[in-house]
User: Which sequence fits this backbone?
């Protein structure tokens, strides 16, 4: 590694203790598929899902480190989103068991999993179009008394809770630069803003782990930058992040650990730099010329790999 | 031609008993379809459940009307549970298929010869169904008629209580939909999976909406049985449900006052066109139609009017066009 990268890392660690902790914890983890982590929040075994003749997901063992940002990458059709759907209960696996916080959660309904702190977003953003941005946020808050049928008719029971949720929603919206859009319909937001709203709404549930399915797809570069900042912030607040992404710049920039899937299986694991040097990953996903800039602007790509 | 009669007849029907029955059915649909997005195409089954509860309890078993109302509520709830448990976990269109089939099934069941002793077969149940209610009529016994509105003493009493019921249920719906509960069901209408991902038990909310909408529809049936003192299976055809949908969309779905305004306008237009045509035929202004054609012609004109509404004001009277435009995105 070039010296300047180490310096960058050191200064970054001062600003981001969460990152430092995650990197330190993952330092001694072997770079092999299914590697054991020191403090896994999610452990899955033999998870498989077949669609007709196609085995979309066939994961023997995987662990997700608590408090880290883990990227899940792989070619199209590798089974990343299907794995997401299985782990969050939105789809039922053919085989497999997995634990969340040491608790067996296989076969649990998706809403129960969400209540346990495992909250996801979707590849195709699901903003609730004909509801305002603020209502989208309020809906995210968990444990609301006013959401029960009979108490909902007695506002004095839930008004205080509602106000408290609004304060938190405003704070989150401010962080995601959506505070000017409070009363707009979510359907009137741009695609990128909807991604932000969906992420902010997921955070309203106070999740222990957020699972983001392609958070950057269709988002312009400037907004990507701020989204990256938000995701790093989520980790700094102690939340575990697992995300699916194709943008390798982003994966390299924010992830502490990378898991690579191809044809339903995990083929490699490791910190971003190690994974991107992996022969198998290059063949299956990145392509031989992945570290060469396609355009004059691809400076960060060439810089990082120059040290090899 | 007497425009006075046309006006008074039209107005009497626009806010009359039939309008109330349809309005209650539409208030129920508003909870189910307007707010929660449940495509219930069998609302008439809930109305029939309410009406037959009164008929069977009062006439077949000779028990109290008040017990019958309770049974009507229970019957609507039970029907909602039976329809909802297998279908609410599936995609929305399944509910539509199951509910429309169930409503026809229920109608054929109550008119079958096998259950003639209980449900009265094709003739239905006719008798003093609402006597206990009419005995409570506080209107003076020498009451003849209001000016313009030509209800009998008995009908006026039903109309008063009927609109009170409408107001009561509208208040209930208003209270629910402005609360966090209403927010969850609106979220379900927009995108069920998103709401699930936030940790809400979507199935329970959909079931609550189906049951509540069913009970409100059931009260439509109770009013029907009490007012008309007769319950007949073939009045509960699927077109009842579609008129209720028409009323809902006319007023504006997911608007608290939508069903009320929708019902009044629907029956005002339907009755108005009918009265006008009848009078014109009588007076000889129209000679290519006979008085018996009026019944169908007014529905043809109604259909035309609805098409125009959908083209020029698809959001209904109260709806917000901006919301509708968001669907396309």
Assistant:
């Amino acid at each position: 590694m070039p010296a300047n990268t180490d310096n960058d890392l050191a200064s970054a660690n001062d600003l981001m203790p969460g990152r430092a902790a995650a990197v330190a914890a993952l330092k001694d983890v072997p770079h092999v598929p299914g590697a054991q982590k020191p403090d896994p929040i999610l452990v899955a075994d033999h998870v498989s899902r077949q669609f007709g003749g196609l085995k979309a997901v066939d994961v023997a063992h995987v662990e997700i480190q608590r408090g880290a940002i883990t990227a899940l990458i792989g070619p199209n059709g590798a089974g990343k989103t299907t794995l997401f759907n299985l782990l969050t209960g939105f789809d039922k696996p053919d085989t497999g068991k997995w634990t969340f916080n040491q608790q067996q959660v296989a076969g649990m309904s998706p809403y129960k999993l969400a209540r346990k702190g495992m909250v996801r977003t979707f590849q195709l953003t699901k903003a609730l179009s004909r509801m305002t941005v603020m209502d989208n946020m309020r809906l995210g808050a968990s444990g609301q008394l006013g959401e029960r049928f009979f108490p909902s008719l007695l506002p004095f029971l839930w008004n205080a809770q509602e106000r408290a949720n609004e304060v938190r929603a405003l704070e989150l919206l401010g962080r995601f630069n959506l505070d000017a859009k409070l009363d707009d319909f979510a359907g009137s937001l741009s695609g990128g803003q909807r991604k932000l709203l969906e992420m902010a709404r997921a955070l309203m549930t106070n999740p222990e782990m957020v699972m983001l399915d392609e958070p950057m797809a269709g988002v312009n570069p400037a907004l990507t930058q701020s989204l990256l900042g938000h995701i790093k912030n989520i980790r700094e607040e102690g939340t575990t992040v697992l995300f699916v992404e194709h943008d390798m710049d982003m994966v390299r920039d924010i992830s502490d650990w990378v898991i690579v899937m191809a044809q339903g299986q995990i083929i490699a694991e490791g910190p971003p730099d190690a994974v991107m040097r992996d022969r198998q990953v290059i063949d299956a996903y990145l392509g031989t010329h992945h570290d060469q800039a396609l355009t004059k602007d691809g400076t960060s790509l060439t810089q990082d790999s120059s040290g090899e | 031609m007497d425009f006075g009669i046309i006006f008074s007849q039209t107005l009497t029907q626009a806010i009359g008993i039939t309008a109330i029955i349809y309005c209650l059915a539409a208030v129920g649909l508003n909870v189910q379809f307007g707010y929660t997005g449940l495509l219930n195409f069998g609302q008439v089954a809930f109305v029939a459940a309410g009406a037959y509860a009164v008929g069977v309890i009062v006439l077949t078993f000779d028990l109290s009307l008040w017990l019958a109302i309770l049974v009507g509520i229970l019957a609507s709830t039970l029907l909602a549970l039976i329809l909802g448990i297998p279908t609410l976990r599936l995609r929305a269109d399944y509910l539509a298929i199951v509910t429309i089939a169930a409503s026809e099934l229920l109608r054929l069941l109550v008119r079958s010869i096998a259950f003639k002793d209980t449900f009265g077969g094709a003739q239905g149940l006719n008798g003093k169904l609402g006597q206990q209610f009419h005995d409570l009529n506080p209107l003076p016994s020498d009451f003849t008629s209001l000016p313009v509105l030509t209800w009998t003493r008995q009908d006026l009493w039903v109309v008063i209580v009927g609109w009170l019921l409408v107001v009561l249920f509208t208040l209930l719906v208003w209270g629910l939909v402005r609360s966090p509960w209403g927010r969850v069901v609106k979220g379900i209408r927009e995108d069920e999976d998103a709401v699930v991902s936030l940790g809400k038990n979507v199935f329970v909310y959909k079931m609550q909406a189906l049951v509540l909408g069913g009970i409100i529809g059931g009260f439509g049936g109770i009013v029907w049985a009490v007012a008309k003192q007769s319950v007949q299976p073939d009045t509960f055809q699927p077109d009842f449900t579609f008129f209720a949908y028409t009323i809902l969309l006319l007023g504006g779905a997911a608007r608290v006052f939508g069903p009320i305004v929708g019902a009044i306008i629907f029956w005002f237009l339907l009755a108005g066109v009918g009265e006008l045509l009848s009078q014109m035929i009588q007076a000889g202004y129209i000679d290519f139609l006979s008085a018996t054609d009026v019944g169908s012609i007014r529905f043809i004109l109604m259909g035309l009017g609805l098409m125009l509404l959908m083209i020029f004001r698809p959001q209904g009277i109260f709806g917000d066009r901006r919301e509708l435009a968001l669907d396309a995105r």
Strands of chain A lie at 40-51, 54-65, 69-73, 95-100, 103-104, 118-120, 209-213, 240-244, 257-262, 265-270.
